[in-house]
Amino acid sequence: MVTEDNWFLDREERGNPASRIDTRHDTGTAWSHGNTVRPIPHGAPYFTELLARVRELRSGDLLMFTDWRGDPGERLDGPGTEVADVFAEAARRGVVVKGLLWRSHWDKLFFSAEENRHLGDAIEEAGGECLRDMRVPLGGSHHQKLVVLRHRDDPRRDIAFVGGIDLCWSRRDDSSHEGDAQAAPMAKVYGSHPPWHDVQAAIQGPAVGDVETVFRERWEDPQPLTRNPVHRVADLVRREDTQPDPLPPQPPDPPVCGPHAVQLLRTYAHRRTRYSFAPRGERSVARGYLKALRRARSLIYIEDQYLWSPQVAESFAEALKANPELRMISILPLHPDQDGLISGVPQILGRNQALAVLKRAGGDRVAVYGVENREGTPVYVHAKVCVIDDVWSTIGSDNFNRRSWTYDSELTCAVLDETPDGREPLDPGGLGDGARRLPRDLRLTLAREHLDRHGDSDADLLDPASFFDAFASSAAELERWYAGGRQGPRPPGRLRTYEVSQMSPWTTAWATPFYRFLCDPDGRPRAMRRAGRY
Fold this sequence. Notes:
About 35% of the residues lie in helices and about 20% in strands. With about 525 residues, the protein is an alpha+beta fold. The longest helix is centred in the middle third of the chain and has 22 residues, at about 340-360.
């Protein structure tokens, strides 16, 4: 039987006593019980559900959201469903709409300052409140992507969404991976409508109150939204709202409704102008993974946008070295998201270093793949998912790099399922936890897509060893088809073996400082940094 204490962090292990996140539960635990967590792969089904649920909100209900980027014209489900209009309509119905958007850097650096401002403008004009939050360290971002919907008269309908999907262009894709008709500019290799792979979690039950607490702590932080004097003058000229109005009192948590225990893991940087709710920062994302990895015995499956940092890779390497039967599969983008030396080369350098650490530790027990669609266009993998031994799983906003573990604000949902999975092997980790339904189904759902399989053809995917072999076989078959000049029908499967790019000593020399200080900065206190702790 799975024991939550073995996988989840207790209050002391989180390392942030200033937060309310771990003092809310009557059970005294740093997590909640009785939830239902439902993974939603891809933006199209997520946006469709979000649209329906927001349109059901009525006067006195509450809509709260945070985002890294928000495009006001992004359609949730066709013409007339632009996200700014949908949220504004809710505000005009009397829904309390509150949003926090990262203020962002300059658009010409491939960021989203203007889009985020215009989304906030539309909501404010309708009577909601949407603030641009720049309370981050230099070069950092607010990377959390959450939506909380609370219903004044029926808390059973309350729901929170947490994961990797922003309310912006390029995110509305589905399993066919033909891309979003409203596309953000990306590297040319991804085409005019870049295919986009992502995952969001729908959470119901008491954990909705935990997600709401994450929002409230940021909203109620007394520090000014920005200390940049240029920003402050511009805000005065535009008469921009920079003072958050009080939130209505937080309602009681929704009732229990399912078999899932949920722990929210977060990252907040250690800043000179401190967060009131995390005065020395918080690194529970890193700590949560480190604790779970110590129990990994059979299979670590991850999907991630980056996997850059050799320091983060070392955490996985230690598990691989300690357990000779442990395998690891990583699904990553085949190419950086932007063209150009400064945009792409430092990212490739960091990934090369991380993969070298993993390969030294695990050898051929480590497999790394990218994904393409049926037309052969690379799919940009933006998901942030981890499944360990079919027991512990995460869906969130954090990537496997030092930036996400120490510098940017992040939010990840870690889940343990009370429901045993009756399919063999019953206990792939061999520690008595037993395979659990939700993490195994999540792993199989993602695998079926990558292998072009249907739900009734996954018998060989249950066992970690045969799962590992099935991925290798599918990728090799596709590589042979390409090597043979693409003669005959394309074989099923979308996996491409990830090839490490070779770099000259000169390229490594100039790219290293860009990687260390721009791509993958370290937000830990100095003493913790020196000691190599999180």
